Amino acid sequence: MSIIAKNLEDVNRRIARAAVKAGKTPEDITLVAVSKTIEIERMREAYNFGVRNFGENKVQELVKKVAEFSSANDEPQIGNFDEKPIWHMIGRLQTNKAKIAAESASLIHSVDSMRLADELNRRANSTVNILLQVNVSEEATKAGVNVESVEKIIHDMQKLPNLCVKGLMTIAPPVENPEENRQFFVKMNKIYIDIRKVLYDNGFTFLSMGMTSDFEVAIEEGANIVRIGTGIFGER
User: Fold this and answer.
1) Largest interatomic CA distance in the chain
2) Which residue intervals of the chain are DSSP H helices?
3) What is the pLDDT of residues 152-164, one digit of tens each?
4) Sign of the torsion formed by the C-alpha atoms of 95, 101, 106 and 109
5) Which residues contact 63 (CB under 8 A, 6 or more apart)?
6) Domain of 221: which CATH number?
7) Which domain holds residue 26?
8) Distance CA 93, CA 222 (A)
């Protein structure tokens, strides 16, 4: 068994355990494999072992990989490549790349301002699915809207006809002990639940939080999308 296959087996086992602890099923959790800087051959290997969602940080790399992954491959594959991957834009997005990102990604996780939302809405040729990024840890160097602004910004985004806000995303601080981030995941889940009650129907469904170092705690506290790179592909 390859290293990627072994890593995925471990990650999926840990996702399943955390999901059960949270009163969910493993199928309730979407695993996004963070594939930034990962060559297409290793991504195809992850695909062959069940990965269907890939997350990219840079628009140029996203566009390139969408094209490469869709190209013909003469080598026999375990997976059915007629089932297309789902592409996520998870990195910080500049307004001048909004149109390209909207055309390439099924879900943009990193919408962190009304300015970016307005640009996506203006540039879109069809509905763009987004998550609002929240700076729940209130770090000065981190992107995302502040907690107090979430409800108003979502109200404003509702008025944009080409956007569909599907949920929230946050990036917790890098820590050695994942328990240190539990407080942020608890806070984020409360915001998510409150917004669902007040503003949305069942279309507001995603809470993206948790990475390789803390995804189990994130799932226990409400995450239903986790973004895992190192845990699958190893150190870059």
Assistant:
1) 53
2) 3-21, 40-48, 59-70, 98-104, 114-123, 150-157, 182-199, 215-220, 230-233
3) 999 999 899 999 9
4) negative
5) 100, 104
6) 3.20.20.10
7) 3-233
8) 25
